[in-house]
Amino acid sequence: MFFWQILLNSLVLGTQVLLLAVPLYLVHSVSRIYHLALGASGIFTAYALYFALSSNWPLGLAIIFSAVVAIILGFISYHLLGSSIKKKETMPGMLISLALGIILESLISIIFGTDAKSLVSGVLPVISWGNLYITVPGVITLSAGAILALLFLVLLNKTPWGRKLISVAENDNLAASLGMKAVSVRLGVFMLAGLLAGFVGIITTLNTALVPTAGFPLVILAFIVLLTGGLNSFKGVIVATYVLTLIPEFIIGLSGDNWSLNASWKMLIVFLLATLILMCRPNGLFISQTRSD
């Protein structure tokens, strides 16, 4: 039974990572930028919800307010990264995004302090089957992850929309020939990414404490997943997400007295796994090396 509880908890954690890897993947698809500020952006949105709720706003108004904050952060991100996107400067763009994330975390600390907050008062509602249990936010996480994974698998691989995203990243003129304004598409993707990151920030901190740095470990995991799964393979990103979250959780959770490991080992195991995968599959799990003449 302990095995199944670890599996259930690991699936929730893996789905949280996947939900952040989705906007990271979408932004990279249209800009070739690794938008590492998405973790901090999501937590900033969660704090916006916390502010509204602690100010006794109605729940509906609080949710709308946090969604608007998330979209605005996406809008700001796009304009800060616009020059790097135009010049196809991946590394400067990533550094600008990382700086934005640090600024957002600092603003949270200045405004709200560094002590842990909670979005809900009291104990989270729990659903149980025998000795297995999962929180309601955990159920929402799994459901949202399944829906989004299926939705974007279809959209990216089976519809013209997916091909248009690639054309936007490759060439603005090519996008224009397909009847698209590259700027509008990128802006829309960045705002959608901000909204998705905000959802992840809220749903994640419902299960844990709300602290300014909560988004950083999550976005680093999502970034590693993106590289390991393949920058052009959404299917690879999905598989890599669960490989890199389930295996470390099982190694730590099932470690015995003779080789007991704590949570501090988790990122080390993740990096080792990612290194092994990239040594065998440098372009990602489902992308083969192509010959260039």
What does this structure look like?
The protein has about 290 residues and is an all-alpha fold. It has a domain of about 200 residues. It has 11 helices and 2 strands; from the N terminus they run ααααββααααααα. Strands 1-2 form a two-stranded antiparallel sheet. Strand 1 and strand 2 form a beta hairpin. The chain is globular, with a radius of gyration of 19 Å. About 40% of the residues are buried.
Structural topology:
Layout: H1 2-31, H2 38-54, H3 59-86, H4 90-112, E1 126-129, E2 132-135, H5 136-158, H6 160-170, H7 172-177, H8 182-207, H9 215-229, H10 234-253, H11 266-280
Antiparallel strand pairs: 1-2
Helix pairs in contact: 1-5, 1-6, 1-8, 1-9, 1-10, 2-3, 2-4, 2-8, 2-9, 3-4, 3-8, 5-6, 5-8, 9-10, 9-11, 10-11
What's this model, at a glance?
The protein has 293 residues and is mainly α. It has helices spanning 2-31, 38-54, 59-86, 90-112, 136-158, 160-170, 172-177, 182-207, 215-229, 234-253, 266-280; strands at residues 126-129, 132-135.
- Overall 3D shape: globular
**Beta-strand content estimate:** under 5%
Helix content: over 70%
* Terminal residue distance: 55 Å
Rg result: 19 Å
User: How many DSSP H or I helices?
Assistant: 11
List the strand order in the largest sheet.
Answer: 1-2
Please summarize the sheet with the most strands.
Answer: 2 strands, antiparallel
Question: What class do helices, strands and sheet pairing give?
Answer: mainly alpha
List how many beta strands DSSP finds.
Answer: 2
Listing every helix as H and every strand as E from the N terminus to the C terminus, the arrangement reads HHHHEEHHHHHHH
> Uncertain regions: pLDDT < 50 for 5+ in a row?
none
Q: Give the averaged pLDDT, no decimals.
A: 87
